[in-house]
Amino acid sequence: MLYTLCNSLGPITLGYNIPEINQAIVEQLKNGIVFSYPHPLEGEVAKLLVEVIPCAEKVRFLKTGGEAIAACIKIARYHTRRNKILHCGYNGWLNTLSAPAGPLPPGIASSSPYNGVPPVLQALHKSLSWGNLEEWEKVFSKEGEEIAAVVIASDYAEMEKGKEFLPAIRNLTQKYGTLMIMDEIVTGFRLAIGGAHQYFDFKPDMAVFGKGLANGMPVSAYLGRKDLLDSAPKITISSTFGGETLSLAAAKASIKFYKKNNVIDYLWKTGEKIWNEVQNLFKKYNIEADLKGFPVCPYFSFNSAEERDLFFKTCYKNGVSLYHVPYVNYSHKEKDIKETLERMERAIKEMKK
């Protein structure tokens, strides 16, 4: 048996084989998957999201987080009549168009993501650092009238900086008439149902959700101000599978599950419990590593890449699947945490032989 703290890179927030979600998918399968016109489920799920996500006035659906962010960028350019975009963090392969100012996922970082991107397009996109307000102010002072939008994914390791940084960026964008787009693909349905903007109490113009939205079924949502979302059909943001109903049925069941079972609180408490114990194991066996950030989506920080890789591989060999950003899910109960920690300790002992 494999204990996963990788959870398919984040989408599995509730666990595998959740009866309520399985049943919702099976029942919808009997009635069809995709249709020529919008299915009522689109409206039902959109209504639920408007109720639980602070910045949501209107909602539209696509399949992946990257294309949903691309949709928001297109809307921002249309509304502002500007072209430049500032990025913070990883906003999906589709939007990796400029040299990063922070860490990328390992698979992306080891590739050449800017090959195939024309210089003229790269020139319209710039990546800035998380938490460095002075850097952002400097860029805005020079180029503010040309910037259509900022797209921000919160930094896992230094998430706490969002308390001051994100509201400050919100003020900065409003000063220059720039739109703020929050990438809540990881933070949504983990940090809070509404992600970082709910947790840190500010409102972006638009936000994007995916991963935990439907507990592993492929659907993303871009949402925000009604006047912005209403422009999507006018500028041809469309997708054959955006309204696919099995994923929407899963999303509807997932949102209801979150509300009924106080999932967010459970993820915080369980995450704190397991990662504190992992920190203790690192200290006990003199592993030069740390878990930084919030317990719902912390970041493994190792002094040595070789030791990091050995740790991940040895844990996997002992039945624990990890990722550089590990996650707990709602199905991780006390006995699972206990067994996982025992296996991780065995792995560390094996490393030290």
Your description of this structure?
Pfam families: Aminotran_3. Its cofactor is pyridoxal 5'-phosphate. GO terms for molecular function: pyridoxal phosphate binding; transaminase activity. The longest helix is centred in the last third of the chain and has 22 residues, at 263-284. Helix 1 (19-29) runs antiparallel to helix 10. The protein has helices at residues 19-29, 40-52, 65-80, 106-109, 119-122, 133-143, 162-176, 195-199, 226-229, 245-261, 263-284, 305-317, 334-351, and strands at residues 3-4, 58-62, 84-88, 125-127, 147-153, 179-183, 206-209, 220-224, 289-292, 299-302, 320-321. Strand 9 (289-292) and strand 10 form a beta hairpin. It has two domains: 19-260, Aspartate Aminotransferase, domain 2; 262-351, Aspartate Aminotransferase, domain 1 (Alpha-Beta Complex), CATH 3.90.1150.10. It is α/β, with parallel strands linked by helices. The strands form three sheets. A seven-stranded mixed beta sheet has the order 2-8-7-6-5-3-4, sandwiched between helices.
